[in-house]
Design a protein that fits this description.
Number of strands: 0
Helix content: over 70%
Strand content: under 5%
Shape: globular
């Protein structure tokens, strides 16, 4: 009976937690309309951190190349939004301006609805192709290779005139009749974050989680047991890329401008931030990346507001402090301080003496 009560209590607690997050998430843009863009960015950061942790935390492959999928999603969504109604090359030649390139409300919404799935699928396709090539590498070789992928994609985009080359590309401009478009972007980002969380939570309760954890713990033994490790690694990276592509499409519209190296394929910002958020919250956990994303976004906005000229320095200090003093992350620290709250049984001194007998 006690086990049943504990299970019911746990279910009720989770239901209240999820319900509270849903209520807060739906009400936040109405309660704080001046911060809708920042809150939309926060939910996208949650997606970045969760998807990176699936590969870097759960599977143990520390990738700096996930930003590739964000950039591919940005450009893919923008190209679809524009290409449905105008010639993309003419639009980028005009730098997205002029009265001849105007989108009404229906066109903007149709382009966004069509662009986001294309962004997700194209990013996933990139993951399949790249994963088959680079996921045979391990350790720091894999990390360095993925870092190079982001740099290479940024340079390729900078030289491709069709998508604006080094001058960048402006996504479809929403009409003024739509009012504050950031609210729409917020709810899209919030919905994507919820979908990403549910998908990853489902994966982590399946046999697939056991497979990627086995790769993290000892890949050679996993192969010796008959696991197709390369196929599993590519699948995990593709799952991450699917959500990152959609997040990139929303992020490009939120920023209103896509620079190939400073926005789309920015390894120094987005590429590092997603790693930092997962480590800060506690990699290899479900809730750690979410907590890390919240703490990081609040810190980033505070430094932007109060020490604008030193924001990069402050974030650099934060990275060093996390790696040196909190390598286990917030969730890891909480598990050490309160093990019983995370299902770990702690022996009392009397029990220890009894076992010693």
């Amino acid at each position: 009976m006690q086990v049943s009560n504990n299970g019911q209590s746990s279910f009720t607690s989770k239901l209240m937690l999820y319900g509270g997050i849903a209520v807060v998430g739906l009400a936040a843009p109405l309660l704080f309309p001046a911060y809708q863009a920042q809150m939309a960015e926060l939910w996208l950061f949650v997606v970045f951190a969760l998807t990176w942790d699936l590969v870097g935390g759960q599977m143990g492959y520390n990738s700096f190349g996930n930003v590739v999928f964000v950039g591919v999603g940005m450009y893919a969504c923008a190209v679809v939004q524009v290409g449905l109604y105008y010639e993309v090359s003419e639009y980028t030649d005009a730098r997205g301006g002029g009265t001849e390139f105007v989108f009404d409300q229906g066109q903007y919404l149709t382009g966004l609805v069509a662009g986001l799935p294309v962004a997700a699928l194209l990013a996933a396709l990139f993951a399949v192709v790249l994963g088959a090539l680079v996921l045979s590498l391990r350790g720091h070789y894999f990390a360095i290779c993925t870092l190079g992928l982001g740099i290479a994609m940024g340079e390729l985009a900078s030289g491709w005139e069709w998508i604006g080359a080094g001058s960048g590309m402006t996504p479809a401009e929403p009409p003024r009749s739509m009012g504050n478009i950031n609210r729409l972007h917020y709810y899209l980002a919030f919905g994507l974050a919820i979908l990403t969380f549910c998908a990853i939570a489902t994966l982590l309760r399946s046999r697939f989680a056991l497979a990627i954890n086995a790769i993290r713990d000892d890949e050679d033994k996993a192969e010796a047991m008959g696991m197709y490790t390369t196929r599993i690694k590519v699948t995990a990276w593709t799952c991450s890329a699917l959500f990152l592509g959609a997040a990139g499409g929303i992020y490009g519209n939120l920023k209103r401008f896509i620079d190939p190296t400073e926005t789309a394929f920015s390894g120094a910002t987005i590429g590092v931030w997603m790693v930092l958020m997962a480590i800060l919250g506690g990699k290899g956990t479900l809730w750690g990346p979410i907590i890390g994303a919240v703490v990081f976004q609040i810190t980033k906005e505070l430094t932007w507001t109060y020490i604008l000229g030193w924001q990069r320095v402050a974030l650099g200090v934060l990275i060093v402090a996390i790696v040196v003093f909190f390598p286990e992350g917030i969730m890891g620290r909480l598990k050490i301080l309160f093990p019983e709250r995370f299902g770990h049984r702690v022996e009392t001194p009397d029990e220890a003496r009894e076992e010693g007998r």
